[in-house]
Design brief:
The protein is mainly α and 224 residues long. Helices cover 84% and strands 0% of the residues. Helix 3 packs antiparallel against helix 5 and helix 5 packs antiparallel against helix 6. It starts with a helix and ends with a helix. The structure holds zinc ion.
Length: 224
């Protein structure tokens, strides 16, 4: 079943249209070349005539191809005119306008001519819509990719911010512990400056020792 899926994708792709267009151009080159060769002046030398007819045939078919694929720039009328010309070339190539042919022969030749013109007309609109759709798909894909990249970037930033937040929390906890220790130390140091007799805090160790010598509470206790 997978093979049908691949086949389906292949025949509906842009490449399939380009492939068929290339085949139409390739076959058209031979038809145009033969026709040009027939009508080019017989006075030309063989190599001149060959080169001129081949290059002109290629130029003509490439013009048909380019107008077919650029319908969005030049409108629909020119590709249709080119397609009709392609059909006429085929008709001339098949001697569709010669006299003395049976009705069936004329029908066959005109049918092929109209068919080639029709293929060109169909492809001019088919190519345009397929091309526009593939462009749209590409734009949507690009947009999706852009959004995915943005999402990835934002996720990365979020992870980074989260880790920074965790680190800050750790730092804060550590700071809190340090502050607690510092407070304890400060309390201990302040306790060392309290006079053991009257329980009054002193400014420094020197103040304490001079205060202790003169402390009223101590003297009163001694007197008792
Ligand atoms: Zn005291």
């Amino acid at each position: 079943m997978k093979i049908f899926e691949i086949l389906g994708k292949a025949i509906t792709s842009m490449s399939a249209i380009i492939f068929v267009l290339a085949m139409v151009v390739a076959s058209g080159t031979f038809f145009s070349h033969t026709l040009f060769y027939e009508v080019f002046p017989s006075g030309m030398t063989e190599w001149e005539k060959s080169i001129a007819t081949w290059t002109l045939a290629c130029a003509w078919e490439l013009t048909v191809l380019l107008t077919t694929v650029n319908t969005n720039y030049i409108g629909k009328k020119i590709p249709i005119a080119m397609a009709v010309c392609s059909g006429l070339i085929i008709l001339l190539f098949l001697h569709g306008f010669d006299g003395g042919l049976s009705l069936l022969d004329y029908f066959k030749r005109f049918f092929i001519g109209i068919l080639v013109a029709y293929i060109n007309i169909v492809f001019s609109s088919l190519f345009l819509s397929a091309w526009q759709e593939s462009r749209r798909e590409k734009t949507a894909e690009e947009k999706l990719k852009e959004l995915e990249l943005l999402h990835e970037e934002q996720t990365r930033e979020l992870v980074k911010t989260k880790s920074e937040l965790d680190q800050s929390k750790k730092d804060f906890d550590q700071l809190f512990l340090l502050t607690e220790e510092l407070e304890k130390f400060k309390k201990m140091e302040l306790e060392k400056l309290i006079c053991p007799h009257c329980n009054q805090p002193q400014k420094s160790v020197f103040h304490l020792s001079s205060h202790k010598a003169l402390c009223n509470a101590k003297q009163q206790r001694n007197e008792n």
